[in-house]
Amino acid sequence: RCIDTRTTAAHCGACGQTCRPGQVCSGGVCACPAGQTQCGVRCVDTARDAAHCGACSRACGTGASCASGTCACPTGQALCNGACVDPATHNSNCGGCNRFCTGGRTCVGGACVCPAGRTLCSGVCVDTSAESGNCGACGNRCVYPGAAPICRAGTCTCPAPLGVCGGRCLDLSTNYLHCGRCNNVCAAGTR
To answer: What pTM was estimated for this model as a whole?
Structure first.
């Protein structure tokens, strides 16, 4: 039987010389079909192949696809550090690549924000209603001599059973100068 070794993939250039799967025989030489490129042992369409996008071994990142030889992420996502991410919610790429949310903040709508009930003070989200170093506002420290003051509902106060008198934490149940309340001197002979 006669075989055209210039166009037959099973006998390309000579009898028994077989082209690899996906190749065609053209002019007696095994080659990839028009529009495809030889990448290793395979013929691929570098305009659409995500593992060989635009050139051999140029892989698109996680979640990306290859269109016209260029890696692209789905609508609303950005290619950051080799992966498609949503910059509106991604804490390491908030609003753009490599914009990190730190100090307890999370990415909401492309901006780093503190959770509800927290305020950003010196780069950290804090509860100004309960933190003695930022009581009621950033930088407002609770300082009362005589005891470790606490922040309650955004106001500096003394821990129970102490009360604040003259800028100090005092035990109003035992202090004879402040008997039960500030500036109330206990009657003579009582305590």
So the answer is: 0.60
